[in-house]
Design a protein that fits this description.
Helices cover about 35% and strands about 20% of the residues. It contains three helices and four strands, in the order αββαββα. The radius of gyration is 14 Å and the shape is globular.
Length: about 110
Amino acid sequence: MESMLNRKDWSQVRRRALGPTEIVTRLSVLPGWQLAGDGADVAIEKTYRFANYYETISFVNAVAFVANAQDHHPALSVHYDRCVVRFNTHDVKGLSETDFECAAQVDALLA
């Protein structure tokens, strides 16, 4: 895995929307992630649960660090004891490899 300290320059990578089979294959190796939405609004999302608000916000800050380093920012829904992380790639109007790579990096925060 690339160091999270190195900023990823996605402008140098040609991204494309993944097809249904590719999406299912990639989801199969990301426990807890699921499809949400449809069409151009399709995304992958996962709910992370915590004991309290402090732990939730600590996680949110770590996700922000990963998102900044990868230059790929998820939608976050932050609550007292949980955070929902949602990735999609707007410029391909769907899901790209970037979404799954970033999802794996977010999972790695709690590994």
